[in-house]
């Protein structure tokens, strides 16, 4: 049967491991795995997978969902956040009163590597077979501690798609389409798997990571990394996982690109228009993705004149945490009354989907009037911003001023508008002048000191 799983897992009609079917003591503690797989364990510990259950936002949200649905979604939500807790019957209650220490490890080592088959994608249809056999992506692995078996599933996006595609358990509404969008998009067509971007040293592309899967194992050209970072720089910050916060920020910064179509010359009193385009240049899924009804991505557009006076501005975050006058790129879910809701468990429809698909481009038009008293040139600065959740949701769940949701600048672009062709040409010439890297006031002083030292040295000779 093991060989059958390894060859034809997609074709098998199997029943996912059910609630309470196993016990948590059948799974190995991750510290035991670290004795041979120290590097992979160190990469995983502290990640969002590691903190899938302990994530404080998840705990607040799942408790609200449980209360709103009289417990109907308890097992459903927990199946991806504490899978051992579900298959061992330790959930509910979702508060974790009956949860063992190993189930609190979230998506942990042994659980992931005893998945022996999948019954499709979405809503966690995994089959787990805890025991001495550990499954993985290599067909020639040998271990002195446990048996190793190859399973094709571990090399494909379908493995990730078990949890990273979610359909409402009661009405069939798709509330997370990360896998589906990849499957229907250009990356899947080109054979780029989720692991190629999220389990390599590269950020938005494959980059080989030579090494060994464990102590004493053979050296390979590529070993999958286990940080598996997305864009969550908020919860990682709360939990003090600064390494993973910085990795999330780096990933966000390499996800999209901007372009501006703007006139180079504008006269006082003119009404000008800017066409700003956002391209999803680095993600194989839509941006944002996941629980995209609470994600927020938007443009901050600022136009200032030569004296620093604000001429046009949109997309700033106000003191109360709201975003001013900007289009928000996310999903808008509708409840039973057709009103927007941020609680996906109450959703019955999708009112809007404003996200940007893989390699897709969307454009915004911004218009403003050049004041009569303007000082040239006009400086246009555009920034693509992102945050994991609206500030008011966090204030509601945790209390006001407890946590500030970080706003991440994903990418930015700038240009100038001049008064006439002569000043525009001069501005273009200044921009084209080569600069000596590192030469500011400190750099100039350093160069002078070096020159003086060299001169004095030659005099002594």
UniProtKB/TrEMBL annotation:
Q: Which Gene3D superfamilies match?
A: Flavocytochrome C3, Chain A
All copies of the Cytochrome c-552/4 domain together span 32-113
InterPro entries (UniProt xref) = Cyt_c-552/4 (IPR023155), Multihaem_cyt_sf (IPR036280)
Q: TM spans, by residue?
A: none
Q: What is this protein called?
A: Cytochrome c-552/4 domain-containing protein
